[in-house]
Amino acid sequence: MLHGIDVSHHQGVIDWQKAKDKGVVFAFIRATYGVTKDRQFARNWTEAKRVGIYRSAYGWVIDKLNQINNAAIFWDQIKNDPGEIPPAVDFESFGASKPGFSALQLYITEVERRCKRMPILYTSGGYWRQFREHKAQTWIKDYPLWIAHWTTLDQPTLPPPFDKWVFWQWIGDANQVGKEYGMESKAVDFDRFNGDINDFKNFIGGAIPQPPEQSGTIEQRLAKLESWAKTQGYNP
């Protein structure tokens, strides 16, 4: 499984190259919570891209807000650079706010309408199951699931009606190793992608570049391989 993190201003000023050097392939980066913009988002978004980490922006659904406006504010943060991974919608409690399925549906469908991609849903089994009607939300099954389940098990436990997951937030404080990953904070959440790099590239819509067919003499094969490598950024 591929290794990722999710961050917000709570991680402080991040050394993204250090995160990349530790093996971080992708990151979920908070853009908004409700109508409030994350104060580290602009820097995180730019720096993660600079070092070559695949990015998804996420926004929180917060109850008692106009969800259409909420989604519009989120989209404004990324419309000129939407990231490589589809955006994510964070569905959990926020202080006293406990958004329900109607708020989620309004928000996630508006994000989808604006970005022209199916957003990723983030939630936990505990939050999802607290609503009596959770099993009936079959409309959500088409959306990629990013499940929060902090466990040492090999797989997360999914709440109904989900039967598959794409991303898994498997530990919430990363054993206090945030500083090793370039965080100012001690904590950073760790995530996994359910598949290998080919599966990941297929999910985000990017093909894995393949080297040329190896035929001919050694000199011819080397020349073709070097020519192909240059198209992938190799600069001898």
Structure overview:
This protein is an alpha/beta fold and 236 residues long. The chain has 2 domains: 204 residues, TIM Barrel (Alpha-Beta Barrel), CATH 3.20.20.80; 28 residues. 30% of the residues lie in helices and 19% in strands. Helix 3 runs parallel beside helix 4. The protein is globular, with a radius of gyration of 19 Å. The model has no long low-confidence stretch (mean pLDDT 90).
Count of alpha/pi helices: 7
Rounded radius of gyration (Å): 19 Å
User: How helix-rich are the residues, as a percent range?
Assistant: 25-40%
Oligomer state equals single chain
Identify the strand order in the major beta sheet: 1-2-4-5-6-7-8-9
The total count of strands amounts to 9
Percentage of residues in DSSP E strands:
15-25%
CATH 2nd-level architecture of the largest domain: Alpha-Beta Barrel
Label the overall shape.
Answer: globular
Mean pLDDT figure: 90
Could you state the order of secondary-structure elements as H and E?
EHEEHEHEHEHEEEHH
Uncertain ranges: none
Our count of domains comes out at 2
Layout of helices and strands:
Elements: E1 2-7, H1 16-21, E2 26-33, E3 36-37, H2 41-51, E4 54-60, H3 67-78, E5 88-90, H4 101-115, E6 120-124, H5 125-129, E7 145-148, E8 167-171, E9 189-193, H6 197-204, H7 218-231
Parallel strand pairs: 1-2, 2-4, 4-5, 5-6, 6-7, 7-8
Antiparallel strand pairs: 1-9, 2-3, 8-9
Give me some keywords for this one:
236 residues; TIM Barrel; 2 domains; eight-stranded mixed beta barrel
